[in-house]
Amino acid sequence: MTMYDAIVFDLDGTIIVLTLPLEAMRSDVKKLYIEHGLPPQLLEPADGISSSTLKAREYFLNNGMDIDEWNDLQKKVDLVLSRHEANSARNVSLIDGALEALATLRTLGVKTAILTNNGREAVDIILDKISLRPYFDVIQTRNESISPKPFPEGLLQIIERLGCIPERTLYVGDALIDAAAARKAGVDFWGVITGETSEDVLYAEGAKRVFSSLPEMIQFLVKSFEQNRSAGTSSFSLY
Fold first, then answer.
1. Residue after which a domain boundary falls, among 46, 66, 89
2. Residues paired with 171 in a beta bridge
3. Degrees to nearest 5, angle at CA 10 with 180 and 77
4. Are 32 and 8 found together in one domain?
5. Same domain, yes or no, for 81 and 187?
6. Are 11 and 78 in the same domain?
7. Pair type for strands 236-238 and 2-4
């Protein structure tokens, strides 16, 4: 039996409708690395932003680039991503029923957070348009994370800020990098299929449960909480 004290959520494709131009973002990041000397043959069509960055880092740091130069290059990558994200954020919309579901979850007293690979500029635009702050104890972007997903450091930072432990934390998301970050952090992962990844793929990547949407997932959590409360337990206890 697993007991959860905190639930951390991805943002795009999980709480808000996924409108990011992901292919354009991936293409522009690859182009930037190639312009700075990365051999194009090292990148594959299936490489996303994270895998392209891993390959670029290994290549550049093994071929004369120092860490300060690499960090400067990452600032350029951040600018490329932020431009796309800011444009998308201005047209943000919630997944149907998400806000009401989050409000219900909040009344149960469980600690909650958002961990997103979006930059702070785009997230602030989203938060100005949609009042999400009251529903979360922490909202963390890639700019506040030591390393973005699929690295686990951002998730571990949030867990520490919430005063919890990985074994009693749940991460909810729609993408492969969400599953990877949870696995590396030692955190259970539940998937939703409102983003870019299918149910079968999410299960294959380690999801313990997969739901059609965030409201369906929270309805399941609330039902579990009520069952546990009637049994004299105040945490989410889930098999």
1. 89
2. 8, 189
3. 75
4. no
5. no
6. no
7. antiparallel
pLDDT tens for the chain, 239 residues long, are 467 899 999 999 999 999 999 899 999 999 999 999 999 999 999 898 989 999 999 999 999 999 999 999 999 999 999 999 999 999 999 999 999 999 999 888 889 999 999 999 999 999 999 999 999 999 999 999 999 999 999 999 999 999 999 999 999 999 999 999 999 999 999 999 999 899 999 999 999 999 999 999 999 988 887 776 666 555 555 54
* 40 DSSP assignment: G
Separation of alpha carbons 73 and 57, rounded Å: 10
* pTM summary value: 0.88
Residue 29 is part of which domain span?
22-89
Q: Where does a domain end: 61, 89, 117?
A: 89
Q: CA 14 to CA 23: how far, in whole Å?
A: 19
For residues 49 and 104, membership in a common domain is answered with no
Spatial CA neighbour of 145 closest among 133, 166, 134, 159? 159
Instruction: Say whether both 142 and 189 belong to one domain.
Output: yes
Task: Give how many domains the chain has, as a whole number.
Answer: 2
